[in-house]
Amino acid sequence: MTNESRLTDERAIYGSEGDREMAAADKKFTLWALAWPIFIELFLQFLLGAADTLMVSRISDDAVAVVGFSNQLFQALTTLFITVASGAGILIAQKMGSRKYDEARTIAIMAVTVSGVIGLLLSFVLYLLPTQIASLLKLPAELLPLAQTYISIVGGGMVLIAIMAALSTAIRNTGNTKGPMYVAIGMNVLHVILNYAFIFGAFGFPKWGLMGVALSTVICRLLAVIVLFVMFRYSFAQTIGLRDMTLFNRRLFGDVLRIGWPLGINMSCWVFTQLLIFAFIAMIGSAELAARTYMNTLESFCFLLGYSVALAVQIQIAHLFGSGRVQEAYGTAFRAMWIGLAVVTVNALLLFLFGDKLLGLFTSNADIIALGVSLLGLNLLLQPGKMINMALSNSLNAVGDTRFTMWISLFSMWLIATALAYWVGIGLGWGLVGIYACMILDEYVRGALSLFRWRGRKFLLKAERGDPDARAAAETSAPSGKFASTAADAH
């Protein structure tokens, strides 16, 4: 085919220069093109958590239990600033697309500033009241001294997590997705080195144990914030100076909150219910708490690729829906769901076959390994349900149906994953297996409700009829932040 005939065909298909630009953009929005960078960043996050767990296990199983418990607490508190980051990320992408670069810049600055203020307040509370908070959440008394050390240091650096999330969101939504990924690589390498040095007394450092892990975490986050801020300064046409950090626009900030609040509530449902589940497990015993912490690490590996697919399909469907290609958007959700199901099922099966050996890398405690192996069988049921839920709830978010996913999360997570789990696991005495069974039920209930909603095509049919409200919803549904709206499904 000649260049001239190819150009003629393009004109016939796309009709205008703008349409040809859209076709070129489509190549960036294939499932593969979107999923692999997300997978790399998620995989690096997983490696960081796995390295932490593996190295901390060399201190003691109690130390592992404290780290797992504390991380659930920190995840719960991050919802207070992730709501701002998620809404800001969506708006930044929109403003960049409409060439309103000054407004995008202002929104990015506000996100960093407001997130930093919230993070600073959390840092003060966690630094001053670590033991009281751990006691309130029913951490066993024998673990409180370790919790005081870890929560006060890592929690005292909560401001770094807040600023890092906002900076990464702003940079990523300007189109620079590689920058945060490179920072994640650097963080992982440095964190492993510092963990080794501080835990085992290598390179002339003293053996600090769990305190060393905490210090390593805070140091790596501080350096990451510095590097990300340098990138952030040059992410827009006009360089951002320190004086610019005082910029605030009430109208734009209102838009940020309007977009971010359903996603924030959805995420907060997950992290706070998970925090309560950890508290229930802590009531059973420290061995069960350690087993659940090890399972969190193994589960993360199990569904990592599927989670990347779920995040990618949210971006892809938002792009198709915003372009008016609603039929393609409808079918894309199911295609991604089946791909994800194949991936997570294979991963769960491999984990079940080799799980006892993997658990042996973390602990030599036979009771903890036995508990973990029993959960690996249930994991074969959990992961497919989680994949269905993630793929379809993300698809609903992509077309703007975020309030529905928020409401089903409020219903299922609190009544099934929390209240029912307490009754079955604690009240009926089924223990960790009973709690895990309720978590499985929660995933399938939310997945079934999301499937019913998606097959109803409510927002898709509105868009086909030219309903402006449906199209406006699409413009405020693209994923953002630290994969904000779906972070709730990360475990």
- Overall pLDDT: 80
Instruction: Characterize the biggest β-sheet.
Output: none
Strand content: under 5%
Large-scale geometry: globular
Unreliably modeled segments: 1-14, 474-491
Helix share of residues? Answer: over 70%
Radius of gyration using CA atoms only: 23 Å
Helix segment tally:
18
Computed structural class = mainly alpha
Number of domains as seen in the coordinates: 1
Per DSSP E runs of 2 or more residues, the count of β-strands stands at 0
Provide the succession of SSEs.
HHHHHHHHHHHHHHHHHH
Q: What separation lies between the terminal Cα atoms?
A: 50 Å
Supply the key terms.
491 residues; mainly alpha; 0% strand; disordered N terminus; disordered C terminus
